[in-house]
Amino acid sequence: MTLESGNRDTFPKLLLGHALGRGDHPAIREKALGIWQSWSWAEVRDEIEWLACGLARAGLARGAHIAVIGANRPRLYWTLTAAQSLGAIPVPFYEDAVAQEMVYVFQDADIAFAVVEDQEQADKLFEIMPQCPKLKRIWFDDPRGLRKYAQEELASYETLRETGKTFAGSHDGFFAAEVARGTGPDTAIMLYTSGTTGHPKGVVLSHDNLIHASRAYAELEGLRDDEEVLAYLPMAWIGQNLFSYAQWMVVGFRINCIESAETVVNDMREIGPTYYFAPPRVLEALLTQVTIRMEDASWVKRRLFAYFMDLARRVGSNLLDARPVSLADRLKYAIGNIVIYAPLKNSLGMSRVRVAYTAGEAIGPDLFVFYRSLGINLKQLYGSTETSVMVCVQPNGEVRPDTVGPPMKGVEVRVLDSGEIVLRCPGLFRAYYKNDAATSEAKDADGWFHTGDAGFFVADGHLKIIDRARDVGKLSDGTLFAPKYLENKLKFFPYIKEAVAFGDGRAQATVMVNIDMQAVGDWAERRAIPYSGYTDLAAKAQVAELVRECVEKVNADLARDPKLCASQIHRFVILHKELDADDGELTRTRKVRRGFIGEKYATIVDALYSDADRCVVEAQVRFEDGRTGKVRAELHIIPARTFAPERVLAAA
């Protein structure tokens, strides 16, 4: 098959093409109760026709919005295509969003219909229904816990499917005619931004936007229809939507829906994905698991691991990019591959990965190099929801940890005098839904999209991202302060899960730290340090010293950076609780809401910039059952050693 396929300018038309030309090929798999189930393209086509007919019978009209809420499940993917077949617009939600977070989107998009995964999601919608009077119908996939629900608005997916199947049988040609009415410029989906600075905005993306972006990546990487792709990230995130839905429809490879978040690594090992996409937080979590296992290994294994990983960091990327490497190092690396690298890749489920992407936020250079040193072709790309993730990507042979590559074909990128990146591309969104003011602010009269990111081009045409433009600041002496850069360097250490840096307009940089409960808990148990939970563990003096070592290693590294040597961290605090999206401290994509945290924990920030060695903090938290309460703790302010800039040492 070719990537360019006539007038297949919408996802439903692409579906019909796959079903017609290769209907018996597997299209999607799902692991349920430990068993992988598979559907062919012809079976998927039938399921989507029946679902579309059922939705049409229920009253879903062209241009209307329908909510899709849950984890990656075939029936939720089919709902996307079924809605698009009718000219309706799916609006995916983050499955971990609390009920009240959904209210604004339901009201903003006038959503009347929803297809949800299970009881948890249905309960959320019943909770907000009084605030969302237009919501009339809810269909569920998983019936567990819903048997005795009697609300007239609720029905099973099977009921909807059977209604549609009956309708299709008596309205021959209805589905095909509806699909034929669709065109490339039609809206394909609406994805809401994470809302780091206020209400989320509905990003309106057309079929043309997403299909063009998907084809550009497919042609660049030579993607084939026999690729195996794991579907495990939130459906509401543009990265998941592009790589596991849009590209699935364009290329025709297989997507595999995991059983649960807890089984993702095992599912990866079973499937062996060839094309992989992960945000830095996922790669950080995998590395933390590796580090924990090595800490528990024997002395001999730890020494072998350290020796061969040092070698891999030195020559692994060069081998991957076909750069010169001495024969002796090649032989050592081959031995390392037998005893360390290949088993490690297998344990991560990455043995068959041909190309892997990371995006969503900046990745720490050390983390990036770790994966490439193993022979995993991990590359950075740059994009956003508004650009259909289509801006920059690193070509093979030109991969570096400090850039995101040159602009893709058809993409124009400029850097303004202020340092902000602006661009134009075929994947650029149409508008923010019902928000002309925000659209005009983001897209100027000449069609340039103002990204809000700060960066610059290096000599070979690669783009380097520094931080969000609004977050890049200066210390009081006028030197550069890039908080995200500091945070990423800290998060490379397995013991640090989150970090929030402060320093703009101040004399020095400081940070708040979240420890990684799994990694630090394992570390504490091996040293017979008792603890009762996160708050108790975070307050241990031994843990403070552990984190201090990490901070001081970052400071030593910063001392070698002429632009950021003044941003060394002078004081830090280990927070008494984990930062949580439910408490408003993180977005649903786990981006730190630095401004909100600074206001919420103003007492801690003030203490970091005083002579105090401790402070008392009280904050409201939301518990798992939805209740709210307050947590009070005394936190220690911990000083960290800083280092003279390397250029000063050299001059001496």
What is the gist of this entry?
This protein is α/β, with parallel strands linked by helices. Helix content is 40%, strand content 21%.
Question: What's the arrangement of secondary structure elements?
Answer:
Layout: H1 11-22, E1 26-32, E2 35-40, H2 41-58, E3 65-69, H3 74-85, E4 89-93, H4 99-108, E5 113-116, H5 119-128, E6 137-140, E7 154-156, H6 157-170, H7 174-181, E8 187-192, E9 202-206, H8 207-221, E10 228-231, H9 238-251, E11 254-257, H10 264-271, E12 275-277, H11 280-295, H12 299-320, H13 327-348, E13 355-358, H14 365-373, E14 378-382, E15 392-393, E16 412-415, E17 420-424, E18 431-432, H15 436-442, E19 449-457, E20 463-468, E21 473-474, E22 480-481, H16 483-491, E23 496-502, E24 509-515, H17 517-526, H18 534-538, H19 541-558, E25 569-574, H20 594-600, H21 602-608, E26 614-622, E27 628-639, H22 646-651
Helix pairs in contact: 1-2, 1-3, 2-3, 2-6, 4-5, 8-9, 11-17, 12-13, 12-14, 20-21
